Amino acid sequence: MRRVAAALYRRPRIQLAALLAAPIGWLVIAYLGSLALFFVSSFWSVDSLSGNIVTTPTLANYQRIASGEVYPIITARTVIMATVVTLTCIAVAFPIAFYMARVASPRVRGLLLVSILLPLWSGYLVKVYAWRLILAQNGVLNWVLAPFGLQGPGYSIEAVWIVESYLWLPYMIIPIYAGLDRIPGSLLEASADLGGRAGNTFRRVILPLTLPAVIAGAIFTFSLTLGDYITPTLVSNTKFIGNVVYDLVGVAGNQPLAAAYAMVPVTIMLVFLLVARRLGAFEAI
Amino acid sequence: MGLPRWLRVTLRLSTGLILAFIYLPIGIIVLYSFNAAKVATWPITSFTFDWYLKAFNDAGIRSSFATSVQVAIGATIVAIVLGSLLALAVSRFRFFGREAIAFIVILPLALPGIVTGLALNTAFRAIGFDFGVTTIIVGHATFCVVVIYNNAIARLRRTSRSFEEASADLGADTFTTFRRITLPAVRTALIAGALLAFALSFDEIIVTNFLAGPGVQTLPIWIFNNYQRPNQLPLVNVAAVLVLLLSIIPVYVASRLTEDPASVAGART
Fold first, then answer.
1. What are the distances in angstroms from CA B37 to CA A197, B32, B60, B177, B226?
2. Residues from chain A contacting residue B227 (CB–CB below 8 Å)
3. Contact A233, A247 (CB under 8 A)
4. Which residues pair with A45 in a beta bridge?
5. In a designed cystine with B108, which of A89, A112, B7, B143 is the match (CB 3.0 to 4.6 A)?
6. Domain spans of chain A?
7. Quick one: which of B150, B139, B149, B82 has its CA closest to B115?
């Protein structure tokens, strides 16, 4: 044992190689390899007679998702949903993040942080299912709204918007909280001393300084909405990119077309990540 | 800070409302699991504990629960090994591609879940590997590595290297130093990371759906396959509460183990 240890100490490169072999093998070779194969497979096709996969490269899958009515509409719907969900999360996250960072006592802040983190990590499917029960015809929401002569959205595209915003809200609160927490108090005092009212200080000092944090949060709200197929399945009859990809793999058995369509959210997220890096959002993660 | 009174009151109110918004659905599903009626109508008129007993004796729930535990433990163990090896290499050595690792590690979480699921699905099909518990463990471990890695590397960066150097100066070899100095320093960070990885795996469905294959069900997949069957509704509610408990309790314990609760989020974001 001791001799091995001494030998290792003298050759740090071997030590490093021993540490890296397994994780690199897994993440780079297996995972990145799978991603590469997935990309390549988007240029394959399915033989319509035998159902076998034909590996001759073709652009047919991409032509199919770019043309006609069905695919472009679903793409646009998904991107709009991701945008609206992200904006909703920003609007809802700001007050609570601001309260945590600037008003609450350290003890309350700690409690709030834990209460935001618990649901961030747990029970994704359970939360969607809970909303399915809440939005049902005889559910809680309609019961609450009935005395006012109102009705909930039922299972609909509005329901998808509410549930997605609910699900990803903690992913927005945490970075905005961290961003607000980093702003030196002296800057806000300076703005007040110079005559800036609350609204003015918010717009001209706080908002620009928290922009990287907002974008960091948006990476997650956007990406998670783009790929979600569980929420639309449980609380609506509307199809989003995720649903189509899932159906193409399972029901239709057209893996190459599914891969090509899944490249859409991947491309959107890569562009998003590049822009985010430019705007300094990576430091805010 | 000199905030106007109305603003303080508004902020406090909206914080309360948002917290209520976050927790009400969770509370409602717990209430429904005790609902005596077989249909989910609100308000609930009578409560019972029967569905929990029925769920306990239900073969489908029992076996999918066992599968979920098996998968979560397997994925956590693989993630601990890979994540801590990677964290040690990145924090204690300089090498080509070191910066790229942080990016690759977070990729399985940053990309939409369908992409990771579909990519691994394609790869397993290509090499002809049968779908089942093993493939689910591989998928879960891939996105759990980042949790362990982030927790371990944050702790390693805060632990001064001088302790390890002192240990070496006092005659300890590499393994002894690891066992007596490095490991105790990162132990709680690893335990917290392991709990988070377990929670992350236990309630996962997006990637799992692509890797389970026919016949293998985790508890979330059991819920997904049964939520539309009217006579299964009470049991689905109980299964949902089980998934919730087994993912929320580990996260709570993990947040108590790390001195800065925000670092728990840092692991994810």
1. 55, 9, 22, 61, 18
2. 129, 132, 234
3. no
4. A54
5. B143
6. 2-41, 68-284
7. B139
- Are B104 and A9 within 8 A, CB to CB? no
Place of tokens 């009515």: A69
Ordered by where they begin, the domains of chain B are 51-268 (1.10.3720.10)
Residue carrying structure tokens 């600037």: A102
Question: Could you give the C-alpha distances from B257 to A117, A174, B263, in angstroms and in order?
Answer: 14, 19, 11
B125 CB within 8 Å of a chain A CB = yes
Contacts of B115 in chain A (CB under 8 A): 35, 38, 227, 262, 265-266
Note which residues in 36-65 of chain B have CB less than 8 A from chain A.
Answer: 39-43
Q: May I ask the CATH architecture of the domain A68-284?
A: Orthogonal Bundle (1.10)
Give the DSSP H or E segment for A53: strand A53-54
Q: In A, which residues are within 8 Å of B126 by CB distance?
A: 37
> In whole angstroms, what is the distance from residue B13 CA to residue A99 CA?
10
Partner-chain residue, chosen from A31, A92, A262, that has the shortest CB–CB distance to B118: A262
Q: Round to whole Å and give the CA distance between A147 and B170.
A: 77
Mean pLDDT, consecutive 10-residue stretches, chain B (269 aa), reads 79 93 93 85 83 91 95 96 91 82 82 90 91 94 90 83 82 80 85 92 92 90 91 91 91 80 43
From chain B, pick out residues whose CB is under 8 angstroms from the CB of A100: 15
Distance CA A154, CA A134 (A): 9
